[in-house]
Amino acid sequence: MSNSLIFILVLSDIIAIGVGIFAGKYIFQRSFDQKEKEAQERAAEILRNAESAAENIKKDRILEAKEKYLRLKGEFEEDANKKRVILQTNEQKLKQREQSLNQTIEANKRRENELETLKTNLNQQLETATKRREEAEKSLHQQVAQLEKIANLTADQAREQLIDALKAEADTRAGSYVKSAMEEARLTATKEAKKIVIETIQRTAAEHAIENCVSVFNIENDDIKGKIIGREGRNIRALEAATGVEIIVDDTPEAIVISGFDPVRREIARLSLHRLVQDGRIHPARIEEVVAKTRKNIDDEIVEIGERTVIDMGIHGLHPELVKMIGRMRFRSSYGQNLLQHSREVAKLCATMASELGLNTKLAKRAGLLHDIGKVWPEESDLPHAILGMELAKKYKENPEVCNAIGAHHDEIEMTSILSPIIQVCDAISGSRPGARREMMESYIQRLRDLENMALSFDGVEKCYAIQAGRELRVIIDADNVSDEKAGMLSFDISQKIEKEMQYPGQIKITVIREMRSVAYAR
């Protein structure tokens, strides 16, 4: 093929391509212009719609704003009206108070004037009374001097003779008046509210002490209750008099309640009842015999408890009296905490602490077990229990360090040994742990002991028992040395001493028992 032909073909292709490009560009431009025009029209329409919607929204917002403005305006006016009414009311009240205050001030001024006048009158009357008293005293002195000259006695001597005469007359007539006067006072009492309060306090005291102050004696059938009570109650009275507890026989099935603050007395009564019921012979003489045997058996049991305790604790060489006192701790409580359990606990704590400090553990354990023996000494003493325990330990030849630890564990004497603060700390640990002690129980029992001791301080009193949670005091007197008339006076004297020297809720009934017995032997 020739070159010219090729050139022509190429040129024709180029022309075709250029024509195609030009045509495509034209078509594209025309399509683009058309779409642009449509887009502009659509945008204009959207703009018109938006402007219309914005106008509508604007109108709605304006309406809402106007409504809100009107509503807020109404609320503000309503609130303003209320406050205006309140202000007017307060102004009226202030005016009334101001008027009242002015009236009060005027009244006070009038009262001040009246008081000033009254003060002036009183001063005048006082001056007059003082003058009259001086004149009366002067006249009295003159009369006394004349009487002393006539009677050859001074005023003090005459007064003493008159007092002696009145005392003698009062002693002879008081016995017959006391009983009738007390009965009349009971019958004429009109304050029922005080009686209700007293009874409530007494019930509360009984319920508070019931847990540690009663024992229950179980019986097989209720027929035995009649035998225990006896004809006209003589058996139960004899049992109460011999043991010092209260025997409560009520509707409780197959049970008798033994009430008393002293656990030794309750245990003696319980064991005595058990033996009497088993034996079947229940009468006053047999009751006294069984109670005496039971009391001896309890003493033997106390010694056995003490010996078993010292063996368990590994303590040797204690005096028999100290062993007996340790056994007596089993029946004694301190602030509601069993004293033997407390002493054992203190002994173990002391041994542990002494071991940690490199001290004598046996000596520490010994002092811990004996630190409260002063609380179980059977005789009355004015010494604190720590000092009393120290004196007992010295009496029975205990180690001086042990004696000092016992006496110093409540800081009543100076500590001279390192063992003493250990005992004090361990005693505090045992007593202060949660639930260990109850202060009210200890003060309650101490009040009953004081009540019994107060009655025992009178001449002719053989035995005394506080029963019914301290609401009754039974006093058994010596019939040979105290007459019926003196027994009546004795109950009154005991009640007066209790009223003066003791604090107690409610009232306490003092029952003085005088029983005459005639005993003869046929040989």
Automatic annotation (TrEMBL):
UniProt-listed InterPro entries? HD/PDEase_dom, HD_domain, HDIG_dom, KH_dom, KH_dom_type_1, KH_dom_type_1_sf, Ribonuclease_Y, RNase_Y_N
| Enzyme Commission code | 3.1.-.-
> CDD domains given for it?
HDc, KH-I_RNaseY
Q: Primary place of residence?
A: membrane
Matching SMART domains, A to Z? HDc, KH
Specify the superkingdom.
Bacteria
Which GO biological-process labels does this protein carry?
A: mRNA catabolic process
| Topology within the bilayer | Single-pass membrane protein
- Provide the leader sequence positions: none
Q: Which Pfam families match?
A: HD, KH_1, RNase_Y_N
Q: Locate the coiled-coil region(s) and give their ranges.
A: 91-153
Instruction: Provide the alphabetized UniProt keywords.
Output: Cell membrane, Coiled coil, Endonuclease, Hydrolase, Membrane, Nuclease, RNA-binding, Transmembrane, Transmembrane helix
Major enzyme class: hydrolase
Query: Which GO cellular component terms, listed alphabetically, does the Swiss-Prot or TrEMBL entry include?
Result: plasma membrane
The portions of this protein that span the membrane are 6-28
Subcellular localization is given as: Cell membrane
Give the protein's function: Endoribonuclease that initiates mRNA decay.
Record family assignment: Belongs to the RNase Y family.
By what name is this protein known? Answer: Ribonuclease Y
The species is: Dyadobacter psychrophilus
Query: Which gene codes for it?
Result: rny
